[in-house]
C-alpha cells in the first residue's frame, strides 16, 4: 500500500485537502426548487442523513454559490438522490446556470420543491437551520415527504470521478 505521510498545518492547501477528502466516497444529490417561475438547483456530494426524529438531512453549500441565495428562498426544497446513470446529469447540474435543467424530467410541488422523476429517492424539505462552517454553510433540511425506488443503484463520487457500487445487493 502506498501512503502519503501526515503533514503539518502549513501543508493544508486547498488542492491537497480536495485530494484527501476525495478518498472518502459519497453519493450525489440534486437540491432544487422553483423560485419566481425559474428552476434553480445544484449538485451536491456533501449530502448526509442526520436525524430520524425530527427527520433531518444535511448538505454543505459553498459560500461563493450563486444559486444558494435564490434556492433558499423557496418555501420547500427538493432533494433527489442521483442514480448510477446520472453522471452527465450531475455534471449538467453543476454547470452553466441557464442549462442545468435542460431535458430533465422534473416534478415541482405546490410549495416549489423540485425533484428529478428518475431519481433513486426524492425528499420534500424545508430549511431547519443553516450553520456557518468556514467557506461553506451546513444546511440542515427537515423532511416532509419521501419517495424511493428499490431497484436502481446510486451514483458514487470518489476521487473526483463518478463510479457505481460494484458488489452491493
Ligand atoms: C459531483 C459534484 C459534487 C458537488 N458537491 C457540491 C457540494 O456538496 N456543495 C457545493 O456547494 N457545491 C458542490 N458542487 C458544485 C455545485 O454543483 C455547483 O457547481 C457550484 O455550487 C457552483 O454553482 P453555483 O454558483 O450555482 O452554486 C458539486 C459538483 C459536483 C460535480
UniProtKB/TrEMBL annotation:
Query: Is Oxidoreductase among this UniProt entry's keywords?
Result: yes
Q: Write one Pfam family the protein is assigned to.
A: Flavin_Reduct
According to its UniProt record, which protein family does this protein belong to? Belongs to the non-flavoprotein flavin reductase family.
Record's keyword terms, sorted: Oxidoreductase
Q: Which residues form the Flavin reductase like domain?
A: 21-164
Asked whether the keyword Transmembrane helix is assigned, the reply is no
Q: Which domain of life is it from?
A: Bacteria
State the protein's name: Flavin reductase family protein
